[in-house]
Design a protein that fits this description.
alpha+beta
Length: 164
């Protein structure tokens, strides 16, 4: 076998690389765990919705239950082919888009099937919030504290929830 002559500075260089590995690998592993935990908590964030029909003289106003819609917060802005939807004028985007009007359409189909008399609502009669508590509070405010109309029928909380 042929002997190789190795320069003298390779010994300390090799030793310093081993020491650096011992300290840097655990730090990288910890950072990876932190990033994974942060991304999984971001993935669990979702939005909740509640909708109602419109009120009118002698006609009851029907409210859905508050339920999760499965959309996640996103910085994805809506483009011509993007399925993103904003709930607050462009500050927060939902991904994928769950349009309030489609939830309201399903609810109104349910009410029609049950034979209830109601005035169809618009998507502005829906509350979409990042927490269940905030959505329940918005629904309560709209149903009981919004001023309403004195000649309207009663408020009916159906508990209905859209199922995919």
């Amino acid at each position: 076998m042929r002997k190789m002559k190795v320069p003298a500075y390779f010994g300390p260089l090799f030793l310093s690389m081993c020491i650096a590995t011992v300290f840097l690998v655990p730090m990288a592993y910890t950072q990876t765990q932190t990033a994974t935990a942060q991304s999984s908590s971001a993935q669990s964030a979702t939005f909740f919705i509640s909708c109602s029909t419109s009120g009118d003289a002698g006609i009851d106003t029907y409210y859905t239950g508050v339920f999760e819609i499965g959309a996640k917060p996103s910085n994805q802005k809506r483009g011509p082919y993007s399925p993103a939807y904003t709930v607050d004028g462009g500050k927060t985007w939902l991904w994928p888009a769950v349009l309030s009007q489609s939830v309201l359409d399903h609810f109104q189909a349910y009410l029609t099937q049950k034979g209830y008399k109601f005035k169809p609502g618009s998507s502005s009669a829906c509350d979409v919030k990042p927490t269940e508590a905030a959505t329940k509070a918005a629904q309560h405010k709209r149903a009981y504290e919004g001023g309403g109309c004195s000649s309207c029928g009663k408020v009916v909380e159906t508990g209905w929830k859209d199922t995919p």
